[in-house]
Amino acid sequence: MHISFGAQHIVRGVSLMLEQGEIGCLLGPSGCGKTTLLRAIAGFQNLQSGSIQIDSNEVSNNNYTLPAEKRGVGMVFQDFALFPHLNVADNISFGMRKASSQERRQRVDELLDRVGLPGYHKRFPHELSGGQQQRIALARALAPKPGLLLLDEPFSSLDAELRERLAVEVRELLKKEGITALLVTHDQQEAFAMADKAGVMYQGELLQWDTPYQLYHQPRHQLVADFIGHGVLLQGTVNTEGSLASPLGMLEHPSLQQVAAGTPVSFLVRPDDVVPDDNSRLRGTIKARGFRGAHNLYTVELPSGIEILTLSPSHEGFSVGSDIGLRPEFDHLVVFAADHCELPGFHDQAPTVQPLPSVLPKAKSA
Ligand SMILES: Nc1ncnc2c1ncn2[C@@H]1O[C@H](COP(=O)(O)OP(=O)(O)OP(=O)(O)O)[C@@H](O)[C@H]1O
């Protein structure tokens, strides 16, 4: 689909699909078009081209937009938006006007149980914490059993710990209800905790739509690799023997035989691709240490001046400024060509790495 505001192309050639009951997440930097795409699916935004189908019914195309209230779509936004003058039970049953009062009561009871707030019927929104309000907002959106639930940064005003816990709870709830959902977030931990499928948008384009595992381990575009998880991209040149000269050493992989000698490429190095090893000849100096609970994340400068990241259990800390040995331990390679797109064929096998003369320690004088 394509969406423009005047001459500005905000969503460009985006195509994605969710199966019944799947949860999708759209990630991407601010202003990349995530909310605009969600608003189009909700029916608040016209398309310039393409189409949107919900349950095989075409609800939008370039000259038709089915009104939002006829789409059977539920929505949850960042700012909760509960009705302040209605109690919890009335907030939840608000969208169930066609149901009998007994059906409404049953559904309110069931949803309050499912969001972990049984007995909260008579409370008013101002008597609830932020996390409780967001659970009620979710229960309200789920009450009419929508065919599709859209969530726009639903947890962004909550603190990090609560956000992660709610993301897991909401996933369980959506799975129990069998609801198809699409979530917009900038928080990749939230996306990883919730999504069956996730995508990274950049300047209106959807660069990849895949499982969270594949986005992390098999990014198809350099910008996806950059956006998802920690890591650095190292530059290298393919030489005539089909190996890759890089700051970590000479990488050898069968797929390099398919790449013309002299081709400049970049490859992804995640913190877990390089492990501290005292006996390794590849050395570096620790420039920074970040505490991540179970692990420390270190920024290490190589003799070439290039910085890479590595992880180590936080109880075996190295201090900033110390010299450490590093051993590349790739499970597979992710290699990008000059156009930033991934080169195929590097996932199935680990490369071998031979140290370069420049990373060998200087001979000790006798
Ligand atoms: N009604 C509008 N008229 C003109 N431009 C708009 C309109 N709505 C959004 N835009 C522009 O479209 C672009 C994408 O906005 P959108 O809200 O979809 O981004 P986003 O990815 O959701 O960002 P964020 O993560 O900051 O919420 C932005 O440059 C924004 O200024």
From TrEMBL:
<dbReference type="GO" id="GO:0016887">
    <property type="term" value="F:ATP hydrolysis activity"/>
</dbReference>
<dbReference type="InterPro" id="IPR017871">
    <property type="entry name" value="ABC_transporter-like_CS"/>
</dbReference>
<dbReference type="InterPro" id="IPR027417">
    <property type="entry name" value="P-loop_NTPase"/>
</dbReference>
<feature type="domain" description="ABC transporter">
    <location>
        <begin position="1"/>
        <end position="228"/>
    </location>
</feature>
<dbReference type="GO" id="GO:0005524">
    <property type="term" value="F:ATP binding"/>
</dbReference>
<keyword id="KW-0067">ATP-binding</keyword>
<dbReference type="GO" id="GO:0015408">
    <property type="term" value="F:ABC-type ferric iron transporter activity"/>
</dbReference>
<keyword id="KW-0408">Iron</keyword>
<keyword id="KW-0547">Nucleotide-binding</keyword>
<dbReference type="Pfam" id="PF08402">
    <property type="entry name" value="TOBE_2"/>
</dbReference>
<dbReference type="InterPro" id="IPR050093">
    <property type="entry name" value="ABC_SmlMolc_Importer"/>
</dbReference>
<dbReference type="InterPro" id="IPR015853">
    <property type="entry name" value="ABC_transpr_FbpC"/>
</dbReference>
<keyword id="KW-0813">Transport</keyword>
<protein>
    <submittedName>
        <fullName>ABC transporter ATP-binding protein</fullName>
    </submittedName>
</protein>
<dbReference type="InterPro" id="IPR013611">
    <property type="entry name" value="Transp-assoc_OB_typ2"/>
</dbReference>
<dbReference type="Pfam" id="PF00005">
    <property type="entry name" value="ABC_tran"/>
</dbReference>
<keyword id="KW-0406">Ion transport</keyword>
<dbReference type="InterPro" id="IPR003439">
    <property type="entry name" value="ABC_transporter-like_ATP-bd"/>
</dbReference>
<keyword id="KW-0472">Membrane</keyword>
<keyword id="KW-1003">Cell membrane</keyword>
<dbReference type="GO" id="GO:0015697">
    <property type="term" value="P:quaternary ammonium group transport"/>
</dbReference>
<keyword id="KW-0410">Iron transport</keyword>
<dbReference type="InterPro" id="IPR003593">
    <property type="entry name" value="AAA+_ATPase"/>
</dbReference>
<dbReference type="InterPro" id="IPR008995">
    <property type="entry name" value="Mo/tungstate-bd_C_term_dom"/>
</dbReference>
<dbReference type="GO" id="GO:0043190">
    <property type="term" value="C:ATP-binding cassette (ABC) transporter complex"/>
</dbReference>
